[in-house]
Amino acid sequence: MTRHRCPVSLPVIHTAAALVALISLCVTFRSGIHEGALALAFGLLVTVGELTRWRGRVREIAPLGAAGALAYALLGENAGLPTHHGVSQSVVVVLAASLLGSVPHIAQGRSPTLDHLARRVLTVGFAAVCFQPLAHSGTLAGGPAHALLLLAPLTLTLLCDTVLAAALAHARTGWPFGPLLRDELRATLGIGSAVCATGAVMALAVAVAGLWALPVFSLPLLLTQLSLRRYAAVRATYRQTIASLARATEIAGYTPAGHALRVAALSQAVGRDLGLTEPELTVLEYAALMHDIGQLSLVDPVPAGSTAALPVEEQRRIALLGGAVVRQTGVDPQVAVVVERQADPCREQPPAARIVRAVNAYEEKARDAGPGGPLKALEELRLATADDYAPEVVEALARVLSRGCLTLPGVG
Fold this sequence. Notes:
Structural class: mainly alpha
Number of helices: 16
Helix content: over 70%
Strand content: under 5%
Radius of gyration: 26 Å
Strand order of the largest sheet: 1-2
Largest sheet: 2 strands, antiparallel
């Protein structure tokens, strides 16, 4: 299987961002701040955006801050008068505002803020380098030509930000770069393109109407951001509900405490290593959480809930009963399919079912093998036939375990 790796490491990205920021600070200190009121207005906008940002399941989400920063980098005029802030001041103002807005997040220890700041500095610097020379050279004369010439730097900036986000995620987590880039591109088609379009329109509006355009175009984006946060909260509650339902087997004494959560966490890591998409990873997580729900139909619990040691027909019966339960919960039908087919012959299973089957077997074998259990369990999976466990899944599991960066609930 071809594995996509990004040649750029985390220190390289951070160092590049630090150099851009340092050079910009030196140049701005020497030349002074131009259009202080304009800088203050955009700085406040970016600060508010940073204060309201939040951490999604995979990425930082700060549409208002990103749009404000991009608008300042793409600003060539203010109410018909040319601006003179240039590339360096664009970076300095956005960096200062982002740092100010990040103080509460840093104080509460939320997420890797350094990655977020590095991405913001490099993206704004790239956009300003692409646009500001055109604005100051007199090439942009306003009107349709101005709007059209914005498209080129806007598109390049969008691609730059997408690649940078994937590179940061890869460097931070070790997940394959190719699938991360694919997911970032898909996200770009959604909220990413809306943020870039809003930033460009905001810059054009300020060029015509002045700073009064900022609140007009910021309010809809802020409302959208609040709606996204509410949607994310609903999704989180939905996931917690499924996790609570999955704990029914633990409460009833059919499976050890934390087993479902450990299988779900490890399954997701393996799925990412194999390049599953975000929707596929969601189905995988829910199926892994509920993979043992069929054991509730048993009169006599399986010792330690170790279904991997049961006869195939018994495993299949439990899986089918589990799928029937899942279908009654209103969860995505694909989750029920994965639960039902986790005991089928490996070659006939969908990818998610192969992953759940292998990870569940590993977790049970590692738990029961005592000292050295993880190595023994992995060796058993490797020695099994391809009809038992998919070789590519077992190797992905080995890679995930070798990285040693996964924190499993209830372990350690």
